[in-house]
Amino acid sequence: MLSHWIVAPIILPSLMAPLIVLAARYDMTLQRILSLGATVALVGISILLTVAAAGGTVEVYELGSWPAPFGIVMVLDRLSALMLLMTSLLALAVLVYVVGTDWDRRGAHFHALYQFQLMGLTGAMLTGDLFNLFVFFEILLIASYGLMVHGGGKLRMQAGVQYVIYNLAGSTLFVFALATLYGVTGTLNMADMAIRAQSLPEADMALLRTGAAMLLVVFAVKGALLPLHFWLPNTYVHAPAPVAALFAIMTKVGAYAIIRVYTLVFGPDAAVTGSMPGDWIMPVAVITMVVGMIGVLAGGNLARVVAFAAIGSMGTMFIAVAAFTPESTLAALYYMVHSTFAAAVLFLIVDMVQSRRGTCGLQVLPPIAQTGLIASLFFAGAIAMAGMPPLSGFLGKLLVLDSVREQGGVAWIWGAILIASLIAIVGLARAGSQIFWKAHADETTDPDGTMAAIPAQPVALPVAAVLGLLALIVAMTVAAGPVTDYMQATAGQLYDSSAYIGAVMGH
Amino acid sequence: MSLALIAALPFLGALLPGIMIRAGRNTCALATGSVTALALIGLLLHAPAVLQGEVIQTQITWMPLLGLNANFFLDGLGLLFAGLILGIGLLIITYARFYLAKSDPMGQFYTYLLLFQGAMVGIVLSDNILLLLIFWELTSLSSFLLIGYWRHLPEGRQGARMALAVTGMGGLALIGGMLILGHIVGSYELTVILENRELIQQSDLYAPALLLILLGAFTKSAQFPFHFWLPHAMAAPTPVSAYLHSATMVKAGLFLMARLWPVLSGTDLWFWLVAGAGLITMVMGAVIALFKDDLKGLLAFSTVSHLGLITMLLGIGTDVAAVVAVFHIINHATFKAALFMTAGIIDHEAHTRDIKRLGGLRTLMPVTFVLATVASLSMAGIPPLNGFLSKEMMLEQAADVGFFFGLMVTIGAMFSVAYSLRYIVHVFLGPKRDDYPAKPHDPGFGMWVSPALLVVLVVLIGLFPNTIVGPLVATTGGAVIGSTDLPYYSLALWHGFNIALLMSVAAVALGYLVLRFHPLFEELWNDARRPEAKEIFDALIDLCARGADRVTNLLHDGAMTRYLAIFTASAVLFGFAAFMGGTHGSGTRETLPMSVVPIIGWLLIITATIVTLMVHRNRLLSLVMVAVIGLIISIGFAYLSAPDLALTQLSVEVVTVILLLLALHYLPKETPVESTPGRRIRDGAIAGFAGLGVTGLLYAIMTRDHDTISWFHLEQSYPGGGGTNVVNVILVDFRGFDTFGEIIVLGVAALGIYAIIDAALRGPASRRLANFKPDFRRAGDRHPMMMVVATRVILPVALTVGVFIFLRGHNEPGGGFIAGLVVSIALLMQYMASGFTWAQKRQRFDYHAIIAAGIIIAALTGVGSWFYDAPFLSSAFDYYTIPPLSEFELASAIAFDVGVFLTVVGSVMLALAELSRIGRHTSVSVNKDAMDIDPRADTPAAKVEGH
């Protein structure tokens, strides 16, 4: 009976979203119940699927009963299950936060868009078909656009337009890439393409490589690799902060796609591309990390600081991706899960700060309500993000450092990672002390207590959401052994693609 | 008690003070103290075994993949440090209880303190260097919190950030060094590493590893040139200074050097780096300390100096020197912590730490005077106190190195004597003053008991060194040099007349003279121009921050055109580079002969494109041109025997153009000139390359034969999918899941449009719209009768056509998507012809509901197959005959297609409704009835404004 559960993460939100529009569009409480219920169920299903995938079998679901490569297949392996679990946990935390802060009342259709967004994400992580991946990219793009401009406002609309145009350009290139790949290999199924790419005549190699390269550019846009990251900073800064927290997963979709396609179809053993993907990603990953962390130091605005920290963390993760070895992919996966939660925590805190200060600029303002609580949450989030111990960021960073030791230019890579960490630490410390400490310097200059008049806000649900995410980070730290074991098995499965191909193609 | 538990206790206990503060400050301090006491007892229970030479170990597997395990071990060195940390910790906790003011959040303080304590204990007990790194960084973080504890003080904030930046940098370097070390040895276990001296020192990576590790140790232990953060960390409350910045944290670097001494020391590189840095630090710190008027500043630099001294001893590299280093670590911890506490007492009681404002406290604070004097004399190296013992041994070791070393350390010792005496003479002796900020008096017992205990130790160790610390020094020394075979040394007050005694006497005598002429030297010192580390550091950080801001802003200037140019250029570059890396053979497929129709189409499409480029600033006109291009593409599909695509493309074009026209109505009709000619040339070049690239790609693909999966679709369309129109069967069956996704995209787009416009109309945009003036002359006859009548007549016909297209879709060109578009166009025409209000009145279904229903129907069709135990969206079909009709087919795909149909109609109509909602927000009048005449007909727009 496992079989139908594989598509449940896609079908559930895709049914729940229209149901919310159809039946609950005039009642916020009902929307919340349906949306939260669906997301809780999604977490449950994801756990079930993760447990199922842990055994190592690759489960294939043939939509419409059409066998691969002629129909579309969903494939559940350890990587997909891991991505699903991460997505659903993040989604639940963010949704709780949104409900707790009434963000969903600030515009129309929040919950429907949210569920559609989840559908796009889960679909992208499960599909075994490249064109279907394109479709899910479209779903998550259009839904994320709706979420991004949720609540409206001039700056948000401007950033939204840039976001959607940039990503549509990416989608266009996606179609070109797909057309090229289909034109050469005659298939859209990833497993089938992997087989066909092996036995292609020599004369087709250049075209196939071109297709693979264009696809890499598409995924790099999603993954916010320099110089294709331009959609990210303004989007994260101007999107509603809880939405930005959810968007922590968006870049990971790009990373997921790169890991999937460039281990399965154009893996390190594929003669046609060889080490091309890794050779290209490595330098830009280093640059991405450095530029991201420089952005953290640049400061100016807490949301911007966090957005650039997110870019920097993508760079760090892609360094591990680029090495394309089982060890490095394990490091990349661990760092990916960690950095997703860490970025989300920080974005939620950005929202807490902004809703109390009225701005997330770093200028000195009198202390905010509940400053102690929020400051400690920020401290924890910043530690995680900067990769300081004792949280999983440090372990992730160690894993990344450890896994690239056989790479060429390892001294440069290590140096860059460590220096980037230092920049991030200094940048985050500056931002945090500006907001949470320097505020107290002005207590004497705010004698009438204008800021103190801002009432404390309900914090139970929002804080529960943040603490929940932090608890996940702590769990990843404490249970680092079992977690990395699972990820090691995941990486092993990725580099031994015969099981995947066999399952899909029915050998 | 398990070692892991000893290290974990302070962390676990860190929760207590935060809670217990609610029961009062005494309870809070007591709870904190008992946590530390418990850990200390646990440690001391191991002491007898360790002193007999045993090594105690605990192992917990954590992350075996990485080689990171929670392994702890306890030998002499660990015992010494852990004892210092926990023992002095206990005293500090007592002291802090009375030091902190009522308004200070004490619970927070003790929490931070315990976190720090746990991290420190962790460092000294770790048997795994990765674990050690974790604790190492944790001390940086917890000290950040402790230094910044008084968050309203700018010195606290800046000092905290500086300490974090410097020690954080060292910590990161240490990560690199440790990873290299682990790489050389092949293990991260300290006990394993310590056995591989040859392997490490012969490795090519020895030098980088050593440099990085020393960077970590030097920053932590404030060695030149990283010493500058320590004095600024003194902004912390005095208990913190006493604990972190004299007794424990700053010794972490020393601990590390001592710990790795067996494998790293003994090389020239080690000697020059470690002994050199130590010597410079020692002398420099001592000199600066003499000229500090702030009591804590004086003590801070004296700490720097003594840390340098110990570093130098470790750097010398002989076994004896290492043992002496250990001995001095013990002595320094006792007298320096006591001194910091007396400084805190003076500050607490006299409300100032400025030596210039103090003096004559001898009779006012007799207890403090005695404590401070004994500790100071020990620091100066006066017999019979413990400072004298280790200083003598140190002088001897330095003299053994060579004349220069001997001379330098004598100078350092001289200044050391001078500032130590100054602490006594300028603070306690001299005349009583009448301008103290507060009336000084001795504090309560609780505050002086801690330093008093330490001072007792200072004296006892001085008098009976072998009894009190002999075994500890021996065990620790053995642990440092990595052998039980200890060199000869003697802990005694009297070693006979030797060179060390001579140097010592010289230092004391000269030091006294220096203090005598202190005002003179001070003048010289103040006139000298010195680089101020803090200013340099601040300027550097500021420069970096501003540079970062510049770089970031320069890179992210917000210009969409630039972002897209970079994107396109990247795509072209990477695509081209990839192409060049592979072999390419041109296609072998026969090309079709040129005929008239394609040539005409080709010419048209080229012309339309060029015209679009030429008129692109006129938005309406360029929209028309784009529509022309779309039309030709539709014709192209039809010509290439793809009627389904042609129909779809055609109807999509119509709907898009109508909606775009409506949207453009509220936007400026011209695109302003925003880019320079240079940029236009650049963008043109990029676009040209991209276009050529795509053309080349298309040509290459279309001129080759390839083996695709489409044969299966053609073969299975009828027998497997129940339809002869393979395009439709692909859409609703073979790849129905794609279609399901695409209708969701369409539906979400419509919902998104609704949400955006809904939000916009509630914002300032609504007010702008209210002032909207049409910028075109308006037609008097907004809803021409001819058109109204025609559309109404056409409607039933169009709907029938829609149904027809829908029904035949499975076998002939058509289907739900096209039908949806056709019906939408028919409805759009009604709205356009008769006005939105009129048409809307006759429409009962909410568009949101139509979209939602469409998606749900499609999804449920898919779910339906679960009941037949088939995967999602598996189709079923069969043929039925109901007389008198001929045989017809019912397929589940039709239900799916209904969903597609509804979603398309709903989405298009919702988009239209939202556009018209914008219109209703303007001041322009809206018709209520069809076929109405605008009373302001044919008046120019300018005049309309007058109304």
From TrEMBL, chain B:
Q: Which GO terms describe its biological process?
A: monoatomic ion transport
Show the stretches that span the lipid bilayer.
72-95, 107-125, 162-185, 205-230, 242-263, 269-291, 364-382, 402-425, 445-464, 492-515, 563-580, 592-613, 620-640, 646-664, 685-702, 743-765, 786-807, 813-833, 845-868, 888-913
Keyword match Transport: yes
Identify the GO cellular component terms for this protein: plasma membrane
Ranges of residues in domain NADH:quinone oxidoreductase/Mrp antiporter transmembrane: 126-415
Q: What is its main location?
A: membrane
Q: Which Pfam families does its entry note?
A: MbhD, MbhE, MnhB, Proton_antipo_M, Proton_antipo_N
Q: Where is the MrpA C-terminal/MbhD domain?
A: 605-669
Q: What does the UniProt keyword field contain? A: Antiport, Cell membrane, Ion transport, Membrane, Transmembrane, Transmembrane helix, Transport
Gene Ontology terms, MF aspect = antiporter activity
Q: How does it sit in the membrane?
A: Multi-pass membrane protein
Put simply, this protein is called Monovalent cation/H+ antiporter subunit A
